[in-house]
Amino acid sequence: MTNINNFSFSEIPLYFAYRRRTLGHEQYHGTFHAHQGVEILYIHEGEGTLIVDQQSYKVAAGTLCIFQPYQLHHIQMSPDTPFTRSIVHFEPFLYESYFEKWPGLLTFFKQMYTSKLPAPCIYDIADPEPLISLFPSLAEKLPALPKQDYLEEFSLFLVTFFRAFRQLWERSEVQFASGTARHKHQAERILTWLESHYTEPLRLEHMAGELHLSPYHLSHLFKECTGSSISDYVTARRMQQAVMLLTSTEQSIAQIAENIGITNSSHFCKTFKSRMGSTPHQFRLQWRKQR
After folding, report:
1. Are 26 and 57 in contact (CB under 8 A)?
2. 290 — pLDDT class (breaks 50, 70, 90)
3. Exposed, middle or buried, 145 (CB in 10 Å: 0-12/13-18/19+)?
């Protein structure tokens, strides 16, 4: 599977690994690292130490860990036992709209990456089955899942996952610090700006001015943190929005192109086909046949 440290959300909107296993003699050391998006790690087997924000936490089988965007962390597992874990890693901006029908769940989803967490771990989960039973189901579907179905399948998974996760969270001792927002990395400020403006013409000078960065520093920082250029990210974000509109509305191809910020329908169709392997019209027909 894709190496999570080289993972780009412009390639696939969610990274998932089920029961990835490192044997004891392989000595899983890990390294200090941070990455775009939210990472949720569930430990099935093993024990060790997690370091987040210069604080140490003991982790073992049954521990659920949450790493917020660009939060530096390191995990050192004991070589005496296998280390088996499942990982869900995603860019939250891509999925907020799928939670809008459930305001309480949307609030919880947003708090998970905007609020300061008192601790990154939930220990001794009393009944983890409703949560971890979702992992094998997605793992079975993924190998045969067509690319055009990624966003729909992942959004359904995340809504169900966070519904179960919210119940575990509310029973745990870890709670959000009331009214306390965490400090945002500069790359997150850029992503937040792009989320509000990706349907508009991309003008680097204007964007840099609003973010109080030089155009060169803006481009370099974004590429360094996300592995993608700003223009590639905007294109990928527009195509992901197009997929949602094609499968959830009756808007025409021209309307969808305009709504995602592409005024030329021919250019939209060409870009969509190069990314998704079919034209928007073909994609919509294939999606309807599968329902």
Report:
1. no
2. low
3. middle
Alpha helix (H) ranges present in the chain?
103-114, 129-132, 134-141, 150-171, 186-197, 204-211, 215-226, 230-248, 253-259, 265-276, 280-290
At residue 196, the 3 state secondary structure works out as helix
pLDDT per residue as tens digits for the range 75-131: 888 888 889 999 999 989 889 989 999 999 999 999 888 888 888 888 877 778 888
Residue 68: both structure tokens together: 């917020």
Residue with tokens 């949720």: 40
The first and second tokens of residue 79, run together, are: 């070589």
3-state helix, strand, coil in the chain (%, to 5): 50, 20, 30
202 Rama sector, left if φ>0, alpha if ψ -120 to 50, beta otherwise: beta
Torsion 233-236-241-242 (CA) sign: positive
CA 141 to chain centre: 19
Q: What does the alpha-carbon distance between residue 56 and residue 232 come to, in Å, rounded to a whole number?
A: 37
Query: How distant, in Å, are the alpha carbons of 23, 59, 116 from that of 85?
Result: 12, 12, 24
Two tokens, residue 171: 């029973």
CA 123, CA 121: separation in Å to the nearest integer? Answer: 6
Is residue 3 very low, low, confident or very high in pLDDT (cuts 50, 70, 90)? very low
Q: What is the pTM of this model?
A: 0.70
The DSSP H or E segment spanning 51 is strand 47-52
How many of the other CB atoms lie within 10 Å of CB of 259? Answer: 15
**Rounded Cα–Cα distance for residues 286 and 264 (Å):** 23
89 CB burial (10 A radius; 0-12, 13-18, 19+): buried
